[in-house]
Amino acid sequence: MLAMSAKGILPKVDYAIFADTGWEPESVYRHLDRLEKEVAEPAGIPILRVSSGNIREDALDPDHRFASMPLHILNKDGKPGMTRRQCTGEYKIKPIKQKIREILGYPYPTPIPKGVFVEQWVGISTDEFHRAKDADVKYMRNRHPLLDMSWSRADCTRYLTSLGLADTPKSSCLGCPFHGNAQWRHIRDTSPAEWEDVVAFDAAIRHGNARANASGNRLLGEAYLHRSRVPLGQAPIDHVTAAERAALLADADEADELEYGVVDGCSPWACRGDVDAVQENFGLAS
After folding, report:
1. Contact 47/32 with Cβ under 8 angstroms?
2. Domain count of the chain?
């Protein structure tokens, strides 16, 4: 959407907003720098980077309140469970809303007058039309340009390829528990340092976040990043899941994308709770 706006295919947006959780893959930060320099700046579109902190550091800081990640839990009775997902609201939606209020000239807690709003573009394609939804505040009105254009994920990929951006990575936390096996393999096989980082984090949160443990609210069970509920370094990530097989059968041309894990991603306005979702961590306002 940013590229199409910069090229005049879509109307020019006033801002692009990137919500940074502080724990994105280095490839995402490199790509963002490239977008800013080669696409946004020449078109006069500012990319605003907003943040509520570093989600990894916050989870391991006993003095910091932590908005929980959706960790996979193995309870003492052997039954599986999952912790609440609060990270999307805290690390993505909250800082975007704060920035939009600033742009409008009404920072929190100043009331925003009736009729004052931004139009916010959300990058949901036809593959996931069911995730399109209205904003939960009146000063933001969501629009879904890719749906208006009937563009699928494959259409987006082809367009990015035509611009020399075929290597566009998906935005998500390195240690997101919603990663599918393809994404875990991608981290392990292409970035040893980041793999070491997520394996260490997985071990560190075995009994919950540091603040909860320090306050005596130790997790009754064990927490894991991988859905198998075993330590990440031992998890069966080489297993090709049913979702991966279905995607391969549906479109053999996208096999390389699947192999390298690009079907994983996270969006501030359509956070996925499964491994199939494909979203961008961008909000565009006009």
Report:
1. yes
2. 1
